Amino acid sequence: MGKGGDTFISDSSAQLETGIKRKTAPSAAFTGKLAFAIAAAALGSSFQHGYNTGVLNNPQQVIESWIKGSMTNRTGKIPTQENVTFVFSLMTSVFCIGGMIGGATTGLVADKFGRKLGLLLNNILVILAVICEASSKALTSYELIILGRFLIGVNSGLNAGLAPMYLAEISPINLRGAVGTVYQLVITISILVAQVLGLKNILGTDDLWITLLAMTIVPAIFQLITLPFCPESPKFILSSKGNENQARKALSWFRGTMDVHEEMDVMKAESEALKLIPKTTVRELVTNSTLRIPLIISLTVMIAQQLSGINAVMFFSSTIFGMAGLTGDSPTYATLAMGGINVMMTVVSLFLVERAGRKTLLLVGFGGMAVDTLLLTIGMLFAHTGSTAGIFCVIFVLIFVVMFAIGPGSIPWFLVSELFNQSARPTATSLAVCINWTANFIVGLAFLPLKDSIGSYVFLIFFVLQVVFFVFIYKKVPETKNKTLEEITAMFRQQSYQ
What we know:
Blueprint: H1 3-22, H2 32-43, H3 46-54, H4 60-75, H5 81-104, H6 106-113, H7 115-136, H8 142-170, H9 176-197, H10 209-214, H11 217-226, H12 234-241, H13 244-255, H14 261-274, H15 282-287, H16 289-307, H17 310-323, H18 330-352, H19 358-381, H20 387-406, H21 411-419, H22 425-454, H23 458-476, H24 485-497
Helix pairs in contact: 1-14, 1-24, 2-8, 2-11, 3-8, 3-9, 4-5, 5-8, 5-22, 6-7, 6-8, 6-22, 7-8, 7-11, 8-9, 8-21, 8-22, 9-18, 9-21, 12-13, 16-21, 16-22, 16-23, 16-24, 17-18, 17-20, 18-20, 19-20, 19-23, 21-22
């Protein structure tokens, strides 16, 4: 869009701001029905994301043994370990490829079907994925697992955009950050659940690993049973369908009261202003300075989350615990303890995010990770000298997880929904989620070769990135705590004129 388009959007934004100065979004209580909707949306969506991220870790050797047997039965020749590793790596990485595709289509699905119906229809992919994975062993086809992992990846990519969008739009302004953190909290819980169920004495056995993969159907069933009882996002109903009565009814359901006049007035002011703004395209997001600034912030924070090194630390944790003198199954259980700390600190961040603010927690998280990563690198260089250095490495790993969970783990998922209005939110979310999955894929692809090439020094790369992200957040990311969407828009409009 050209310069004239910029002026048009700026004028309508000014009208939007004027309307909001008259009506300020009121605070609201946390009701039982809101809690029910949050559970229905988050447990059925982000559980897929987390569970399928960690489900292949513990039973890796068992699955690789099955892949080797399947290849041998087909060809009559015993495959090389390189071939087996390649197939397993493809099983793992195709999940991220699916996530990129799912993330890229979030905007289309959110606009066409709505947030709630989009989440419900997305479970069709889970059912197809489970059919593929559950039948793979009987049919001796590892290709079916690869296909199933791809489908569940598309599902998770869509969930990563739709669920935070729905949660942000049904939340009162004073609880928006805390509710948004729930998405990451469920991810951390589901990763831990996958790790526990994947233990050798539970489902990580030769006979039961296929059941472990098929368990991903459980959260889908939960969502299909619970989410239909919840209304669609009131903001979507008002802005996209233009049904004020239905939007008021939905808002009353979430708030547990019929007294929602003030909040409805704010929503109507936003909706009326948005009618003056054409549907936001990717081109507009890039060319319009008022939209480009929050887009750059959203994409950078999503990239920062993945390039922070959290996945590398999680992957390398068993090696580090081994350096500390842990033997046998002890590194596995230490990794589970690390997952538990991740869950616990994400719960802490849920309460902190509305007190300390988004920007503060991001700065504390990335700043703490930078210092900790530098110390971890030094500790690993001296780990061979004795168990003391190894023990310090374990401590540094746990501190790293704490720093990540405080802010960088949860905030990026809902920050995108806070930075954009109803018109731009689906398109911006699509780009942000796609970028997040792409960065995730790159880290998974590049970390092992880098580790093999430069050893412990690989963490210095993450140290540099963390410092860069810290500086970016300090200079560019605004504080959105307790601010209406229109106040945030006004901030970006002011920045674009500077």
